[in-house]
Design a protein that fits this description.
The structure is a homodimer of 469-residue chains.
Chain A (H helix, E strand, L loop, with lengths): L18 H20 L3 E2 L5 E3 H4 L5 H5 L3 E3 L5 E4 L4 H15 L3 E10 L11 E10 L4 H17 L4 E7 H10 L6 H8 L2 H15 L5 H11 L8 H12 L4 H23 L7 E3 L13 E7 L9 E6 L13 E7 H11 L11 E5 L5 H13 L4 E3 L6 H10 L4 E5 L1 H6 L2 E5 L5 E5 L1 H11 L9 H4 L3 H5 L1
Parallel strand pairs in A: 1-5, 7-8, 12-13, 12-14
Antiparallel strand pairs in A: 2-4, 3-4, 5-6, 6-11, 7-9, 9-10, 10-11, 14-15, 15-16
Helix pairs in contact in A: 1-5, 5-11, 6-11, 7-8, 10-11
Chain lengths: 469, 469
């Protein structure tokens, strides 16, 4: 036999997702979507391909370089999106008059970045974004954080949401006359936790040109949130810190602090424990478009993998595409990073199949009976797979075992003749014979740990069961 | 003010999907996924980008031309997938030893084709594929058709599934000595319904080189299924038609007919009405890889838009990538065409938002109370949006009206002081005042047409309600 002509392979940094991961991934995604919808967020869709000019220069030099950009068949300069925020900006510029404000949307979609592949990082990954645009209110900031918190609560993951306010950082820079250097300073500060003070000091000296005194004061500022026993303690320390600042700086800082206090009050109203929120003054978030609150989410048991949900407030989402000012706030769940994290924590249940019951038919002459039994079990809300060919029972049981299907309904000659089922529990090996279809459904429900559904009264006539007693 | 530097626009043949369509689209997708899972199909994911050699030459010359193909940053020759079948073939070649056979998977994903944009046809669209691979049994064919039928039943759409068997077509060609010309003949026959006999006669003459007698016999064959009162009548007519055929042809035809009879028997066992199945001998399905049963699905009320779910059986899915023979059967729902169809039929309910209740807070000092009420309503399973800023009540009601949110919970000074809610029904204008949070939840459920949930007994102590009576 000739060698197959084409080697089956995937591109570097890309991957197939097999059912054992794809099933819990789909479940996780569905949970997130249900949370978004429970807060009244609506889905939108945008194209994966955009005109390159729409996407270029919106993230950073790095995202520009990492873009999948090419000329399409019509010689248009096009690129695959690298995030969902830039497409939202373009979408808002085009459609905000149709959807109105405030507008809250979620968007679950794939994005592409040709970055160096690393553990748990791929060139193609899903993002789950949710934003409220058209309002400057801190109530919207709190609503986004509440959604974040609820997402992780729903997934059963312990996490801490760390937040900061960009205005506090720029006020701090004003107190040391370093406003002009804010970009390199924020970039350096963002590395504090990972790289440590020494490395950041070096960067602040070489890249931002700060002197020793300025650097000392910056560290004094970021340390205000360390060892504070509560967020209100940090806020009170910040009030002291800015007390001696110039009037203009003081006013700006006070405004930011009032916003944070409102956010914390609303979050407390939502029942979120103050201890799962952490005002951390060293957080800057790289992207330049944030102007207000910024936040990120660390898994308590696995902080190393970095933030699994980040975002912040921006003053003007779509200024490149429209004159209308569109302030907003939003966050993004890194689904695939989160998935990798949960896999590492062992909290992700791998599954080989979605089926709960396998129906095994042993002769072709009984295939229609198998279909009938399958349809009735399925109509009772149980996920059931009819084994799709005639094979020996041993082979069908082996299949159920390999796929971790817990229950097998066996239909042989005797079952066919008497219109009954035999139920085999794969874990115990126990068999129940001569079950009517109603008994079969009830027993399968019990074995699956669900309340046994009563037979549908419409089908058996009303109260038939009662009359029998 | 300066003109924004970049014109916001999408590429020709691409589009944004706004909430009013995206919400029912997401609901539809979720319904389909639930059907797939109820039959034990498991999700997989594959990359949107593949090596071009994996995708080229697998569909047709047309799909090759329509491919988005380019050199990536690493100079690799890559392309965006144009369907989900070729990626499945590549996936199976790489992973079939891990997942085992029979293997049933579904795959919901975006595909790209640079075809001429038409009404309801875009260059980017979603496919929902489901396949069973690793078996040649007609039971699997029936299982796929059962899933198709169940999908449309779930969506509340009347449809007819038309099917045929490739072997019957090739047997018919054998009886007129035209086996060599099967590709142009099948391509022509596939156009019978749309183009009519005259046009197809022309094509059969010019493209396939058939003479008058051959063409007459081909039409005699395709007409066997016309005006038949049942599928078994068509099968019986086919047995007559092939009676005089050469022995080898007769055996092959009989085998195909037996398979179709088994499929019909299993479908009848699943409770599917024979009248919603139509053995139609003029169906060939364009793609060359089908070898057995082929099928397509027409909306009864809107046949013009073409098939919304098509597929068939293939002998060897992955022969280009592996020596292992992988027979299978599958189908694909054209989600976006279906969506366009349902929109045209007016059966799609446009929705402006997922929210069922809007919580309106009137003063910043009460924002945390609004968050608390929202959280409690949400915990009862109601989708609730906290209006994300402080605005006049009239403005918040206008928002609810525009978004079609049926219920508004109003929280003013009085409600805040007494920890109660006022509920406004937007359609009637009716207001209920002084509702406790438990009463609020119960009333919202009633207004939403759901069973009013009882207060959680754990929160009020057991049997408290009974003791009150």
């Amino acid at each position: 036999m000739a060698k197959p002509p084409i080697q089956p392979r995937v591109l570097k940094g890309f991957r197939d997702i097999l059912p054992e991961t794809a099933i819990p991934r789909a479940e996780m995604l569905q949970s997130l979507v249900e949370v978004f919808q429970s807060f009244g967020f609506s889905p939108i869709e945008t194209p994966a391909l955009e005109y390159a000019e729409i996407l270029l220069g919106k993230g950073s030099e790095e995202t520009d370089k990492q873009m999948y950009r090419f000329a399409d068949n019509g010689k248009r300069d096009v690129a695959l999106r690298f995030d969902l925020t830039v497409p939202l900006a373009r979408f808002a510029a085009m459609h905000i008059h149709e959807v109105g404000t405030p507008f809250r949307r979620y968007h679950v979609a794939t994005v592409w970045r040709a970055e160096k592949p690393q553990r748990g990082r791929y060139r193609e990954f899903a993002q789950c974004d949710f934003d409220i645009i058209g309002t400057t209110s801190a109530i919207a900031d709190a609503e986004i954080i509440t959604v974040m918190h609820r997402c992780f609560e729903t997934l059963g993951v312990n996490c801490t949401i760390r937040f900061n306010h960009r205005a506090l950082l720029s006020c701090a820079l004003e107190t040391i006359d370093a406003s002009e250097q804010s970009v390199p300073v924020l970039r350096a500060i963002d590395k504090l936790e990972k790289a440590g003070e020494e490395a950041v000091t070096k960067e602040l000296t070489s890249e931002a040109g700060l002197n020793e005194e300025q650097i000392a004061r910056i560290f004094l500022f970021t340390q205000l949130s360390m060892n504070a026993t509560s967020n209100s303690e940090t806020i009170s320390r910040l009030r002291d810190f800015f007390e001696s600042a110039p009037a203009e700086t003081l006013v700006k800082a006070e405004e930011a602090l009032n916003q944070l206090e409102l956010v914390l009050r609303v979050l407390s109203g939502s029942g979120i424990d103050d201890r799962s929120l952490n005002l951390d003054l060293s957080i800057a978030r790289g992207l330049d478009y944030y102007t207000g609150i910024v936040f990120e989410t660390m898994l308590d048991e696995l902080p190393d993998i970095g933030s699994v949900c980040s975002g912040g407030r921006y003053d003007d989402l779509a200024s490149l595409y429209t004159k209308q000012q569109l302030p907003g706030v939003g966050a993004s769940v890194g689904l695939d990073r989160l998935l990798a994290g949960l896999e590492e924590l062992g909290t992700l249940k791998a599954k080989q199949t979605t089926a709960e019951v396998l129906v095994a038919v042993l002769e072709e002459a009984h295939a229609h009976f198998g279909a009938e039994v399958s349809a009735k079990i399925r109509a009772a809300g149980i996920k059931v797979e009819l084994y799709p060919q005639i094979s020996k029972l041993s082979q069908q049981l082996k299949y159920a075992d390999r796929k971790n299907i817990p229950l097998v309904v066996i239909l042989g000659e005797q079952e066919f003749q008497s219109s009954t089922c035999t139920i085999k529990s794969m874990s115990s090996g126990e068999q129940d014979k001569d079950c009517s279809i109603e008994q079969t459904i009830a027993l399968l429900n019990v074995r699956l740990g669900r309340p046994a559904s009563l037979p549908d009264p419409d089908e058996n006539g009303p109260d038939e069961n009662e009359l029998d007693e």
